[in-house]
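User: I'm writing a tutorial on reading structure tokens. Could you give me a worked example: one chain, its sequence, then its tokens, then a sentence or two explaining what the tokens reveal?
Assistant: Sure. Here is the example chain.
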Amino acid sequence: MTVFLTTERLLLRRFTEADVDHLVDLDGDVAVMRYLTGEPTPRAVIENEVLPKILRDYASGPAGRWAAFERDSGQFVGWLSLQPPADGSVREVELGYRLKAAFWGRGYATEGTRALLRKGFTDLGVERVWAETMAVNTASRRVMEKSGLRYVRTFHVHFDDPLPGTEHGEVEYELRRADWAEQQQNPTPGPASPADPG
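And here are its predicted structure tokens:
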């Protein structure tokens, strides 16, 4: 098992081929996929596309996607990521998180995200972290804000089969290394919201 990092309550490790069922369970929940595709991801897609891409990304650089587990129970919680661009560089990476609905409301997404940001900025050479979500996904936006990311813009993308709420657009958030360092000097901690998705 290749542990990437641990937090007070979480352990993040690399995915392996044995994690297919974890991903199928996660992406099989319509509530989890509500703001993503609106429907479960077929097992064949997980096996043939999603998991192979996760594993390939590990070979291209230090950033990627990690399976998250509760340290106390050992239960699979979901995943968190600092997704590199296609070339595997880490100067600018995309923050992501997807947690099982059973673990929403515990502050796990914020806890894991803050740890990833620290790792990215201090150990991996990341200069900028960005994230996007639907404008109406207020729970995900709260995680970004509580993790220190700042709103950049709202933009609109055309979809042939749009999800409910698409008309309100997508939002982009970011955090740069210098701003993160300043936040560490002047922290403004706050409790996790009950509506926090992780």
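What the tokens reveal: Residues 3-185 form a domain with the Aminopeptidase fold (CATH 3.40.630.30). The longest strand covers residues 76-83.
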